[in-house]
Amino acid sequence: MDDDNEDSGRSGGSGGDRDGSGGGDDEARGAPVGRRVVLGLLGLGAAGVVAGPWLQRAQDAVARNDPTGLSRALPGGGGFRYYSVTASVPERGEDDYTLTVDGLVERPATLRLADLRALPQRRLVHDVQCVTGWRVPATPFEGVPLSALLDAAGVRPEGRAVRFGCFDGAYTESLTLEQARRDDVLVALRMQDTPIGHAHGGPVRLYVAPMYFYKSAKWLSSVTVTDTVRPGYWERLGYDVDAWVGRSNGRDDAPTS
Ligand SMILES: Nc1nc2c(c(=O)[nH]1)N[C@H]1C(S)=C(S)[C@@H](COP(=O)(O)O)O[C@H]1N2
Ligand SMILES: [Mo]
């Protein structure tokens, strides 16, 4: 429904952005933070800015009309909203999913789902907070602490940050090494106590508990140690790189971790 769509936030009263500052409801229309930021970016990879809103609407149209059951996983599921910056994302699973850990590490690695499952898992339960305003209470995530993967790969002394890549081929995220090593940052295999489904970024997504949900990259495919923070997809479009819930993006939400 359109009134279930953040596109309609400002006129339709989605309850998204309370004060008009910060993330606002612009994320869904692909124009985070402000029009000036967007205008400044036109000509610099603006395809994503233009494509965003159209794609979000296309997804909603699919959710309304698609009889195949795809809509099950789209907006409405427990308060979560479906996000993707690409029109479609390939499905990957047991046979073809891999996570590479590379960059400034001693031992680059490629892990399959079974490899990730074989490592010690941690389960965390925190609220999820999207920068556009919606919040989902007490959501369990479970997976491998990112720090364990970094330790296994052996971060070289010059490593300062981590860049995350996704198999949608478009989304990226970033953390400082210090943030990445926090014990509430997971390479998550489970969400809501079930394996993460495709719509929520499965089979593996990043989970950064204390930060706005845009940090929790879906369809995670690479973890690359870098020497500097390389701002991620939304961050190049204006979102804060240090995305602490309640202390960034001009918002004052209660912390999630
Ligand atoms: N690959 C990828 N990861 C992503 C996004 C995206 O568009 N693509 N959107 C982010 C944003 S803004 C949010 S709020 C959450 C939404 O997760 P959900 O679709 O499981 O609700 O995913 C984050 N991770
Ligand atoms: Mo978001």
From TrEMBL:
<dbReference type="InterPro" id="IPR036374">
    <property type="entry name" value="OxRdtase_Mopterin-bd_sf"/>
</dbReference>
<feature type="domain" description="Oxidoreductase molybdopterin-binding">
    <location>
        <begin position="88"/>
        <end position="234"/>
    </location>
</feature>
<protein>
    <submittedName>
        <fullName>Molybdopterin-dependent oxidoreductase</fullName>
    </submittedName>
</protein>
<dbReference type="InterPro" id="IPR000572">
    <property type="entry name" value="OxRdtase_Mopterin-bd_dom"/>
</dbReference>
<feature type="region of interest" description="Disordered">
    <location>
        <begin position="1"/>
        <end position="31"/>
    </location>
</feature>
<dbReference type="Pfam" id="PF00174">
    <property type="entry name" value="Oxidored_molyb"/>
</dbReference>
